[in-house]
Amino acid sequence: MKKFLINLGLLLLMVVALVIWTKLPWIGAVALAVLLALWMLLTRTGRQASSVTAVGMGTLRQRIGSSSVIVIGIAGVVGVLVALLAMGQGFQATLQGGGRDDTAIVLRGGSVSEAQSVMTHDDVNAIEQAPGIARDAAGKPLVSAELVVAASMRKKNSDDDGNAQLRGVDDSAWALRPNLKIVQGRKFKPGLRELVVGQGAQREFANLGVGDEVKLGRQRWKVVGVFASGDAYASELWADRKEVAADYRRGDSAESVLVKLSSASAFAPFKAALAADPKLKVEADTTKAYFAKQSAGLAKIIRIVGLVVGVIMAIGAVFGALNCMFAAVAARAREIATLRAIGFRGGPVVVSVMLETMLLALLGGVLGAVVVWLVFDGYTASTLSGFSDVVFQFKVDGALIWTGLKWALAIGFIGGLFPAVRAARLPVTTALREL
To answer: Which regions span the lipid bilayer (predicted)?
Structure first.
């Protein structure tokens, strides 16, 4: 019963420690490391733990194989976890990058995306009269009615087809997106079947160089420019809305209306005016909020998949660490017993085994994080968002690396706790007789 209660206490200690650890910022971890170092330098028990740890670390060369299992296993866990989280973070940053507080998007009521929305010419005219809209030098409201269609195109260096997002826009579209810059060629001319393409779309699909012609819908279109935006728009092809509508038989309709507000505070009266108009059945939101909603679903799925895969791999890494550290404790039984016999307490033995495991775990975590950062940071990929391909970049930042290191150290803590307690409990006479 006593042994059972002790083990139960260890389990509770482990759970509490892990809960606290998951909430700990990096500065807290540094503070803990400093306190541990001071304890090992300034106290007798701490110096004993330091001595035992030094002896254990000195035997790593004889246990290079088993130690490598811990390091490589944890490096794999951290690498996979951070890579998946970086994918979700990069995708979310790409979608949210096109959002602002001083621009609004208007969709048909009940629509959650542009693909589900349809508005008539009269709807667009009514929206243009709403208060709070900014105007250009000529007094014209900065409003762009836009139409989005999925255009089937051949992918670059492949025989497979993908769906590019073709966006038909009005003249004001450029003023509504100040971060969008033409980097090659020029803007398309209204009334002509001309395209400007995002850099992401150009990397993803074939025949999108300046001067190329590509068949979209029923007609051939000429690429006249390339733009950079650093957001989801970079995955799109842009053209005159009326030409897109004519080619795809959409009449004079639009799916969304993008509006430049006179200020961020003008959104509330703008939205209220649209809601008060009985002829309009529309919903407005800031583009920042709209793109946050669009990215939330898929980014959440990617995070969940990353955590599930990480947990499964972490369980395997924990068992690997347990096996290796139990074997290490068994191999050092005489050494530990001798230390206990000359006056070393159980506490320093526990700390030494835990430190050894967690240092190996930290090495594995750093290795996995460095590999992921070198391979995936800025790596360009594409995924489906709705019915079209969105090109985005993996984003490996300090916060994700710290998350990976926390997982590594947590695995080391779990994998070292029970072998450490076994080492401290090892009867001196029994250990000396075993070897």
So the answer is: 27-43, 64-87, 304-329, 349-376, 399-418
pLDDT above 60 (res 417): yes
- For the chain, what is the mean pLDDT? 82
> Would you say 68 and 367 are in contact if contact means Cβ atoms under 8 Å apart?
no
Q: Contact, 148 vs 171, CB < 8 A?
A: no
Residue ranges covered by each domain of the chain: 25-96+295-434, 110-280
Nearest in space to 175 (alpha carbons), one of 143, 212, 221, 219: 143
* 157-168 pLDDT per residue, tens: 777 778 888 999
d(CA 253, CA 290): 21
Asked if residue 187 lies in contact with residue 181, where contact means CB atoms within 8 angstroms, the answer is: no
* Burial annotation 151-184 (CB, 10 A radius, 16+ → b, else e): bebeeeeeeeebbbbbbbbbebbbebbeebeeeb
Q: Which pair of structure tokens corresponds to residue 259?
A: 């509006």
Name the residue with tokens 């030094």. 54
Helices (H), 115-177: 121-128, 173-176
CA pair distance 389, 196, nearest whole angstrom: 17
Q: How many CB atoms are located within 10 Å of the residue 396 CB?
A: 25
H/E element holding 333? helix 333-341
Write out the two tokens for 184: 């090659």
Inter-residue contact 188 to 225 (CB < 8 Å): yes
